[in-house]
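As the work plan foresaw, our protein records have gained a structure token line. A representative record is set out beneath this paragraph:
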Amino acid sequence: MKDIVIKSRHVRLELLVFGICFIVAFFVNLGAVIYYHRPSIEILSQLGFVVVIALSFYFLTAAVRMICALLAFGIKKLTKSNIQ
């Protein structure tokens, strides 16, 4: 059976993307706490929801990235076949 090797560059990139999604979700939570005049303890007590929202953002960005990659691959394949 063939092993699947994931390069460290890809792991770092995915961790960076998830980190950005987490930071965005955290600031959305912070904005909601400020907007609705809630106690500041809710910033930490709602951390589970922040993780769920961050995962949602991550999967949404993954879907968009996948669609963009498929479109780029299709365009590259079409232009390559038209040149030959």
Q: What stands out?
A: Residues 47-83 form the longest helix (37 residues).
